[in-house]
Amino acid sequence: MSVAVHLGAGIAVYSLTIDAPVLPEEKPIEMVLVAPELELPPPQAVTEPPPPEVVEPPPPEVAAIEPPPPPVIAQAIEEPVEAPPPPPPPPPKPKVAKPPKPVPPKPAAVAPANPAPVVPAVTAPPPAAVVAPPKPEGIPTAYAKDVRTKISRYAINKYPRAAVLKEQEGRIGYSLTLAPDGHVLGVEITKPSGFEALDNAAAEAVRNAGPYPALPSLGGTQYRLDGAIVYKLP
To answer: Where does the record place Pro residues bias (predicted)?
Structure first.
């Protein structure tokens, strides 16, 4: 800008002293201002901020747990018992002199007498063998089955009401003694059920299920028949 100003001033002075021919109008000089180039500093590297530090929480403090003391077990301590002093040794027994054994006198020599004649022993005859009477045969299977069937049917129809209400069941063993004509001589409950009502009902059934038929001629005066009654609710 200073150069242009001085140039304009010189042109003006020159026009005052010298008559110069009229020159055509010049176009005004356009001044272009150029800004000086500024040296820019080099771009600085952009540094990323460091990541935030991760602070780990301190580990929880674990208190040391002491084990419980061992249980105190009461023990019976036996006090030593002093042994009594040993008894004094017994006094030595006085030695008794054994009397001398008597020497038997030697028998005088005797002349042998005439020996008596040997009589042979008389043996008694063996006793006659006792023949036992034949044992009576057992009750026929068919007869025993007939009697047991009659007893079971009677017992089923006479189930005690008290046992039904209490839902009692059981098996009762019995023994029946019969005369040869089928007459009942005795009834015995050999294996009770544990329920009085059932045991009594079984004895009544064995006693009253007859009349039983006469037994075959087996040579006996009475016969025993064993059986069982089973009471079971439907």
So the answer is: 41-72, 82-107
Tell me the pLDDT band of 211, cut-offs 50, 70 and 90. Answer: confident
Residue 2 has pLDDT above 60, yes or no: no
Which of 213, 211, 171 is CA-nearest to residue 195? 171
What gap in Å lies between CA 173 and CA 228, rounded to an integer? Answer: 4
- For domain 142-231, the question of CATH label 3.30.1150.10 is answered with yes
Residue with tokens 């020497």: 103
pLDDT in tens, 134-161: 344 578 899 999 999 999 999 989 999 9
* Spatial contact of 144 and 225, defined as CB atoms under 8 Å apart: yes
Backbone phi, then psi, for 86, in 5-degree steps? -65, 145
The residue ranges of DSSP E strands in the chain, in sequence order, are 170-178, 184-191, 223-231
- Return d(Cα 128, Cα 116) in angstroms, integer: 36
**Number of helices (H), then strands (E), in the chain:** 4, 3
Look at residues 202, 207, 210 and name the one whose alpha carbon lies nearest to residue 176: 207
**Res. 36: pLDDT tops 90:** no
* Calpha distance 227→177 (Å, rounded): 11
Query: What crossing angle do the helices spanning 196-208 and 141-157 adopt, rounded to 10°?
Result: 130
Helix (H, G, I), strand (E, B) or coil at 111: coil
> Could you give phi then psi for residue 230, rounded to 5 degrees?
-115, 120
